[in-house]
Amino acid sequence: INDAKKLFKVGADKIVLNSEFVKNPLVLKEFSHSFGAQSIVISLDFKKINGRYKIFYNSGKIKSQNNEKYLFSIINQYAGEVLINSIDYDGLGEGYDYNLINYVYKYLRKPIILCGGAGEYSHFAKALKSNKLDGVSSANFFQFQDQSVYYAKKYLYDKKFNVRKPSLFNIKR
Hints:
By secondary structure, this protein is α/β, with parallel strands linked by helices. It contains eight helices and seven strands, in the order H-E-H-H-E-E-E-H-E-H-E-H-E-H-H.
């Protein structure tokens, strides 16, 4: 809580909780009451084990002992949005885990952002076409492609997705 207070004081709009939430889900209630649900993003890392999605934390090293549906119910009460990541797809650049979208969408009633697996612009479009997501994210793709943020936005804008018109320079005089 004290770390979050410091971050908000210097201008942060949102904070992300991952491991601390998965270990102690009711901590979200305290954060939500202190700062408002709109400022809390829950980040969940999923891995498939024996054909079923399981939530992991601590950089994907520890499997949560909490039931996923229980965690989802706490999120639905106290979080502003959710970032979901597929450990299995992360960094491969072969596309998102589209089945993961369907899995979490059944239970979450908050804005959902998908991460883990994008390797080309069409992967963003395919994920967003599901109409179950509020956003897509990527790390490796944006770190290793020249002007990729601009071109990703341009690709989605040209395909008529609801994104702001891309601009290389957004200078107001």
